[in-house]
């Protein structure tokens, strides 16, 4: 096996049917809420409250929950695709579950014993056993056993079951921990239960074998158990940086996290939920094309918000602002979202820029979610696609062990896109020259992850740090839709290393490979040393400069929720007056449903599309009389 300690050297280079509360927990919630705790109870069998009022109590304590494992393997859905340090989802909870002062309806599963209600950007919660809560990513997590687990060892399963009314169970079964080398010992079985009836979260622990010591000298055994809110600033910890062999939790243990019956805790907070594109990722735009800035603002608190101000700015790097606009929004009820549109921006030359979007509300209590920064590049029809800002000082990072890798996702601004050259920064390992596989991959894997290998080759890295190229042997490779990935996998035990740029802004497009591909755990701090030389169709505008032919293409600015059983809310721009429609295609490209959006003028619009009765993975496009938008994926549930 490979990893876990990542070595970084800075060099210079040019995630049942209905049952009763008593069946699961066996306690009287009214008595529990009024229980007067002794100092000894507070140390050994109970905990809390946190700032909101959540407390925990375990089955070793009088009046605590009763351990009663619920087997869902025959009725639940198996979560496939889990490997090492990766995330799968989102999945529907099946109902709105009250959590802190807001409701959640979907979840992501991390291979390291954690779920998140708001993001797939997680690997180990705060490095496996660090303090919960913690404002660092990941946030909005429920961690029944946040440790370094590894499904890539050939064992381990996860199942989930929802009755679509009030109960969700997620079970991790016989999952080994990660070890350096070929050791596959250790086994951890546990489950979490969400129950809407009293808004409680229950953890249950089956057989526990192993101690998370990773199998190499100097490793710190670490696992964490707890819950935290969407900001990571409020939460409750049961176990912190402890080794299971120290009996801090054991087989046949149950832990109950329960909210207060009432709370006076008030949160005034708005946040930037989405800016410029879904997932707030770096992107490319064609010179001469029209970019339509937008922002989705969410009331993340539990108090009504009257009015707020949103700002959207674009700064040339290095240099001054090339675009600035603002808008006023509100009112917003708790949990509600609003989409704000800003004036268009048309870049007239190739630029590397930083988008800065933020919201201002008097009395906002959580400033950490008020802003988003991301990378945007305006490009011509024949150019290098890259996210690099600093091409001189590059951080070289390698896995501890062969078989790990890194990469990046690229989405062209126009199609077809012909790929002529792939290049990645690689450096020798500590032991000297080493081999690496460089590859180009399509986005047809699960959840849009790397799938079909379009091109690959093995190179021997003999330089301290240098660009290594991969060229198609029979001519350019053409991409006609979606995204593609460039990656490299080290074949030596300590190298070669992959180059990263650590100068902001960051694209958040970095990927890692640990047996399967997933977003890189440190993508907020690194951009991959990768670039692709491409050729795209160009035309000559009236002013005489070459621009990409995207003049009439509508853009699907926003689609939410992306997993639903009834309605989809969309925001889109239409640059050509006339009839506009929305079309839904299945994965084979067959049109399954369409909506007439009307005879529209040029501008930006919002619509709600009803999609109930369909099930599966679909793709939505906006179409006017001249062109179609790129497709956005949506998962529909019955």
Overall description:
With 638 residues, the protein is an all-beta fold. A hairpin with a 3-residue loop joins strand 34 (510-513) and strand 35. The chain has 4 domains: 37-258, no CATH class; 270-379, Immunoglobulin-like, CATH 2.60.40.10; 385-536, Jelly Rolls (Sandwich), CATH 2.60.120; 552-636, Sandwich (Immunoglobulin-like). It is globular, with a radius of gyration of 25 Å.
Number of domains: 4
Structural class: mainly beta
Please compute the radius of gyration using only Cα atoms. 25 Å
- Model regions low in confidence, pLDDT < 50 over at least 5 residues: 1-43, 243-248, 539-550
Instruction: Please estimate the helix content.
Output: under 10%
The rough form would be described as globular
Strand content: over 45%
Can you summarize the main beta sheet? Answer: 9 strands, antiparallel
The helix count comes to 3
Termini separation: 41 Å
Oligomer: single chain
Q: Could you write a compact summary of the structure shown?
A:
With 638 residues, this protein is mostly beta strands. It contains three helices and 47 strands. The longest helix is centred in the first third of the chain and has 6 residues, at 39-44.
């Amino acid at each position: 096996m490979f990893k876990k300690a990542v070595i970084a050297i800075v060099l210079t280079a040019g995630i049942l049917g209905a049952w009763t509360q008593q069946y699961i927990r066996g306690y009287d919630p009214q008595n529990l809420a009024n229980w007067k705790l002794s100092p000894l109870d507070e140390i050994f069998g109970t905990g809390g409250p946190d700032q909101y009022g959540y407390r925990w109590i375990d089955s070793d304590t009088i009046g605590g929950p009763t351990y009663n494992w619920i087997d869902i393997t025959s009725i639940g859905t198996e979560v496939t695709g889990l490997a090492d340090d990766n995330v799968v989802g989102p999945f529907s909870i099946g109902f709105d579950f009250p959590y802190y002062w807001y409701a959640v309806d979907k979840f992501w599963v991390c291979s390291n014993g954690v779920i998140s209600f708001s993001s797939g950007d997680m690997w180990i919660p705060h490095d496996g056993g660090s303090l919960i809560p913690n404002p660092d990513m990941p946030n909005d997590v429920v961690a029944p056993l946040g440790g370094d687990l590894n499904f890539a060892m050939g064992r381990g399963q996860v199942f989930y079951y929802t009755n679509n009314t009030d109960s969700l169970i997620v079970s991790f079964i016989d999952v080994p921990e990660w070890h350096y080398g070929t050791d596959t010992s250790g086994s951890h079985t546990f489950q979490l239960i969400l129950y809407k009836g009293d808004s409680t979260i229950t953890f249950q622990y089956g057989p526990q074998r192993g101690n998370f010591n990773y199998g190499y000298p100097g490793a710190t055994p670490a696992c964490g158990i707890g819950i935290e809110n969407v900001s990571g600033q409020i939460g409750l910890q049961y176990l912190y940086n402890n080794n299971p062999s120290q009996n801090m939790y054991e087989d046949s243990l149950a832990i109950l996290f329960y909210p207060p019956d009432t709370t006076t805790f008030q949160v005034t907070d708005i946040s930037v939920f989405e800016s410029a594109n879904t997932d707030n990722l770096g992107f490319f735009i064609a010179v001469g094309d029209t970019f339509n800035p937008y922002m989705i603002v969410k009331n993340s608190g539990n108090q009504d918000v009257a009015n707020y101000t949103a700002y959207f700015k674009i700064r040339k790097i290095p240099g001054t602002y090339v675009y600035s606009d603002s808008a006023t929004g509100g009112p917003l009820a708790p949990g509600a979202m609003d989409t704000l549109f800003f004036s268009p921006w048309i870049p007239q030359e190739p630029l590397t820029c930083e988008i800065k979007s933020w919201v201002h509300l008097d009395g906002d209590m959580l400033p950490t979610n008020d802003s988003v920064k991301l990378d945007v590049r305006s490009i011509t029809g024949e150019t290098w696609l890259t996210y690099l800002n600093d091409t001189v000082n590059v951080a070289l990072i390698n896995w501890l062990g062969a078989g790990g890798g890194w990469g990046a996702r690229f989405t062209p601004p126009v199609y077809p896109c012909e790929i002529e050259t792939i290049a990645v920064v690689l450096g020798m390992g500590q032991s000297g020259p080493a081999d690496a596989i460089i590859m180009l991959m399509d986005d047809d894997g699960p959840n849009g992850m790397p799938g079909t290998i379009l091109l690959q080759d093995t190179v021997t890295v003999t330089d301290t740090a240098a660009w290594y190229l991969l060229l198609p042997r029979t001519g350019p490779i053409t991409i006609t839709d979606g995204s593609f990935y460039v990656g490299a996998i080290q074949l030596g035990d300590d190298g070669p290393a992959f180059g990263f740029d650590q100068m902001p802004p960051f694209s958040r497009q970095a990927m890692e490979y640990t047996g399967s591909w997933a977003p890189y755990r440190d993508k907020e701090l690194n951009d991959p040393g990768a670039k692709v030389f491409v050729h795209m169709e160009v035309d000559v505008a009236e002013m005489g400069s070459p621009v990409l032919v995207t003049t009439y293409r509508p853009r699907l600015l926003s689609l939410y929720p992306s997993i639903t059983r009834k309605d989809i809310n969309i925001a889109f721009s239409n640059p050509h007056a006339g009839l506009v429609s929305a079309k839904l295609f299945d994965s084979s490209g067959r049109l399954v449903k369409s909506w007439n959006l009307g005879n529209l003028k040029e501008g930006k619009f919002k619509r709600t599309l009803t999609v109930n009765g369909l099930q599966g993975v679909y793709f939505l496009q906006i179409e006017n009389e001249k062109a179609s938008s790129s497709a956005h994926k949506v998962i529909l549930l019955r």
